[in-house]
Structures are given as structure tokens and as C-alpha cells.
Task: structure prediction
Amino acid sequence: MTERKPAGMEWESWADQQVRRAMERGEFDGLPGAGKPIPDIDRPRDALWWVRRKTEEEGVAPLPPALRVRKEAEEARAAAVGARTEDEARRIIAGINEQIVRTVKFPTSGPPLNMMPFDVEEVVAEWREKNAEARRRLEEQRAERAREALRASDGRRKRRWWNIFG
Result:
């Protein structure tokens, strides 16, 4: 495309001619995305579509720090209640509490956090309650399986010759 547009030729026809020649030379062959649909072609465009795409590609959080910490706090509480051990639940809550305290002490741009750190003992009590219920259900399932196995084994029980008479 280093050629200059000839005088008297329209821009559109000249550009079309350049594209056609490049296609004939194979300059468009093997480009990334060739033969694939254009991503997000069916989504409505807004003025900042390119900013959203760039933040997604770069993994940048578009939320202000306070809102990000609030969201992480909700996720951390749910993770702590669903943790495998009490120590793990305590560690999760301690980690998010540090972030909450740091965000409250050192305000950043955006809305204020207005959130207190979680009460570790309250979350652990909720964890214990959830796990006690899960343990109770597990014990009930084990007991039921044991009863079924006992019923099944009663029918197959062999009688010994010395128990025949007595």
C-alpha cells in the first residue's frame, strides 16, 4: 500500500483495488481469527465497549476498592462456613478481616466501606452448626446402610451343624 492514489480516481475504488490486489497476493491469509465469527458481534455497543473488553483481557477489577472488599467479604464468609476444618474457617475469616481493617484505615477513592470485621467466633459457631447437621445426616446414612446390610445378611446366614439342635 505504498502506492499513491492516481489523480482522478475515486478514493473508494482505489482502496478497493488495493485490497483486491493484497488478497490476490495472499497477504490476508493466515491472519488470527480467520474464518471465525467476530466476538461479541451480537451484543449492543456502548461508548465504552473497548474499555470493558480491555479490563476483561487484562484482568483488571473495574470495581472501586471498597466495593471489591465488600464482595470478597461475602465470598469469604460463605467459604468459611463451607470450609472443611474449623482452622481453615478461622484462617479465611482472619484474612478477610485484615483486608477490611486495611480498607477502613486507609480510605481510597470511591465509596467508603462502612463495614466491620467479622466476629470470628460467630462464623465458627455457624460453621459448627452446619457441620453438626452434616455429620448427623452422614451418621443417619451410615446407620441406614448398616441396617440394610444386616437385613440382607440375615437371609443369607448359614446355619452351622452344631446350631441345628439348639
